[in-house]
């Protein structure tokens, strides 16, 4: 079965790789689409074997996960820890890497976004990454960590409270 090339479905798959399980409501909040639209695309992904329903704790929520994933600990947290550890290992050894692998593209930016734009940027990044995550791997390919964190910057003096809107 070919990978889905629909941008919403690609974003949903990328979100599931990041979070392990999501409901259509959680996906809608993260990606900036409606819950109904996310629900429809999750059902379509399930129809073709990409996702499946995950165990539910309250009987009401309908969480989804990537197909064939075991129920268990938060693998997203483990993945983030491994990415951080892997990046530190890369920094220590990148001088000895082959020339065509000796560069990385680490960068950061401070953006001024509205809530909907934050979700839109996240969905666009997930869609780009999903194109590479679902393709057939070539012999020359190596695993590459792609880490993007989009979150509102809170003032240091107000760490535990949300600043008031002006």
UniProtKB/TrEMBL annotation:
InterPro entries: ArsR-like_HTH, WH-like_DNA-bd_sf, WH_DNA-bd_sf. Pfam families: HTH_20 (PF12840). Gene3D superfamilies: Winged helix-like DNA-binding domain superfamily/Winged helix DNA-binding domain. SUPFAM superfamilies: Winged helix' DNA-binding domain (SSF46785). This is Winged helix-turn-helix transcriptional regulator. It comes from Kibdelosporangium persicum.
